Amino acid sequence: MIKIAVYGKGGIGKSTTISNVAAALAEEGYRVMQIGCDPKADSTILLRHNQPVHTVLDLIRKHKDDFTLEDMVVTGFSGVLCVEAGGPAPGLGCAGRGIIAALEKLEEKGAYERYRPDIILYDVLGDVVCGGFSMPMRKGYAGKVFIVTSGENMSIHAAANIAMAVEHFKKRGYAGMGGLILNRRNVRNEEEKVRELAGDFQTDIVASLPRSSLVTQAEEMGMCLMEAFPDSDMAGAYRVLARRMLEKY
Predict the structure, then answer these.
(1) Alpha helices, DSSP H, located in 95-189
(2) Into how many domains does the chain fold?
(3) Is the distance from CB of 2 to CB of 246 less than 8 angstroms?
(4) What is the rounded distance in angstroms from the CA atom of residue 131 to the CA atom of residue 194?
(5) Over 90: is that where the pLDDT of 95 sits?
(6) 3-state SS, residue 182
(7) Rounded CA gap, 211 and 217, in Å?
(8) Which of 89, 152, 206, 212 is most buried, by CB atoms within 10 Å?
(9) How many CB atoms lie within 10 A of CB 219?
(10) What is the pTM of this model?
(11) Which residue in 42, 118, 127, 204 is the catalytic one?
């Protein structure tokens, strides 16, 4: 089972990128599970056509352990298995601990044995890399970490923090670095900045995604781009990224 954690600063387009990668992999015949580890619980929303979903933490709060796998896992576009960890009520609890509880509950309920995904994609907010948010990096969860970034300073800063966390965990047998994904914002010297970051951490830019208005159009339609515009150049870019991520695994 291929297990990949994708991190990045909030708002960098990480969830959109992962959802389209998940759809591209499903298109190739893989059984894909996407697990959203952001308290906003919107990682898989485009794969679900904006339909509501029960987060794992909501189910735990409301029903303790009296719920089924089908309550946690929803099938989205192209058969992608969608899971949202969720988070605590605003101002209450720790979102990082919520991620730990959600991932443990999926294991406890036998999600991986039941659905037998070929590929698991963890979508993880990267502004803070505390113990809970680093959970998908741990041994037994992800095998590789990919970081989505642009050339914007705050995005670069967040990516560097995530890369440092991967470095710190290396000796513990945690997930290794798969590479950087450049999601272009067309800022000055963008590629040079991201290449410098890659060099600092002895990794590569796995793919460079162009800025495309079709991504926004697809989102307004409540779809991922792979569904809304499957023959577009942008869809081709996501397919290339999906293949390169597997090559780097």
Answers:
(1) 95-108, 111-115, 153-169
(2) 1
(3) yes
(4) 26
(5) no
(6) strand
(7) 12
(8) 206
(9) 17
(10) 0.94
(11) 127
**pLDDT for res 78:** 97
Token pair for 56? 């794992």
193 is known as an active-site residue: no
Q: What are phi and psi of 120, to 5 degrees?
A: -115, 130
**194 near 158, Cβ under 8 Å?**
no
Find the helix or strand (DSSP H, E) in which 83 lies. Answer: strand 81-84
- Whether 9 sits among the annotated catalytic residues: the reply is yes
Angle, CA of 141, 84 and 163, to the nearest 5°: 45
Q: Mean of the pLDDT values across residues 127-149?
A: 85
Catalytic residue selected from 3, 9, 105, 193 = 9
Residue 64 is a catalytic residue: no
CB 55, CB 2: distance < 8 Å: no
Higher per-residue confidence, 193 vs 127: 193
Percent of the chain with pLDDT over 90: 81
Q: Which residue has the tokens 């996407």?
A: 34
Residue 61 domain boundaries: 2-248
**Based on the number of CB atoms within 10 Å of its own CB, is 71 exposed (0-12), middle (13-18) or buried (19 or more)?**
middle
CATH number at residue 6: 3.40.50.300
